[in-house]
Design brief:
This protein has 249 residues and is α/β, with parallel strands linked by helices. The chain is built from 7 helices and 9 strands, in the order E-E-E-H-E-E-H-H-H-E-H-E-H-E-E-H. Strand 8 and strand 9 form a beta hairpin. Helix 2 crosses helix 3.
């Protein structure tokens, strides 16, 4: 479960439909409720609508019909989106990249730098404040992107395959870090991934999409404490088999 004092929000989709080119149905009348403080993984084959659904929840795209709402209603600064590419500004150092959302909000320099340092500390990058993106590894750039998302203290964190381009060891470290951040902050997390193992390890609930609809809605039976020992646990293998079976149907 999430932290006992949850700062997350509930997300509810009612009859959500999205069609491209007036003929390609990506999301077909979907109903889905994500509870406050939940960690949900969305997965499925390419083109199944995962990223489209995430963008609609983020209000970066609009459904053709149906509605999406949060309880309580959120302003845009309480929702954070992490993309597959870190999208850091190359002329700004790590501290200034992480502080950017607060700068756009008009927060005073001293306050925004203090908040950015705190967010970078949470992702283990205090030693890199003065570095520029070209001086960082792929994993470090993604951690800056995550800190930038956290700096506004979002209640809803949306991630679209953020670790897909990273090597497996780096992904393992970031998976653990993300779970720990979720525990500490109690925010609602929706995580899009192609990886069955990542979805099974990270999320407390996994939704498999296919043909514009939900093929499987699975509450994980794994223990709340996730560590590297779990990766060789038969229970994780069982969760992965269930998810993979739904994808391959």
């Amino acid at each position: 479960m999430a932290s006992t004092v949850s700062r997350g929000v509930a997300v509810e989709l009612e009859g959500v439909r999205r069609v491209f080119d007036q003929k390609h149905v990506v999301i077909a009348g979907m109903d889905l409720r994500i509870d406050t403080g939940e960690f949900l993984a969305l997965l499925g084959p390419s083109g199944c609508g995962k990223s489209t659904l995430l963008r609609m929840i983020a209000r970066l795209d609009e459904p053709d019909s149906g509605r999406i709402r949060t309880e309580p209603n959120l302003d845009r600064f309480h929702t954070a989106f992490v993309f597959q590419d870190a999208h850091l500004l190359p002329w700004r150092n790590v501290l200034d990249n992480a502080a950017l959302p607060l700068e756009l909000m008009g927060v005073a320099k001293t306050k925004r730098e203090e908040s950015a340092r705190a967010a970078l500390e949470q992702v283990g990058l205090l030693q890199a404040l003065d570095r520029y993106p070209a001086q960082l590894s792929g994993g470090m750039r993604m951690r800056v992107s995550l800190a930038r998302a956290l700096v506004t203290e979002p209640r809803l964190l949306l991630l679209d395959e953020p670790f897909a381009a990273l090597d497996e060891i780096t992904r393992f470290h970031l998976d653990m870090q993300l779970r720990e951040l979720w525990h500490r902050r109690g925010m609602t997390v929706i995580f899009v991934t192609h990886s069955v193992s990542e979805a099974a390890f990270l999320a407390n609930r996994a939704v498999v999409l296919g043909g514009g609809a939900i093929k499987l809605d699975r509450i994980s039976e794994l223990p709340d404490l996730r560590n590297n020992e779990l990766r060789s646990d038969p229970r994780l293998g069982q969760e992965m088999r269930l998810l993979l079976g739904a994808i391959e149907e």
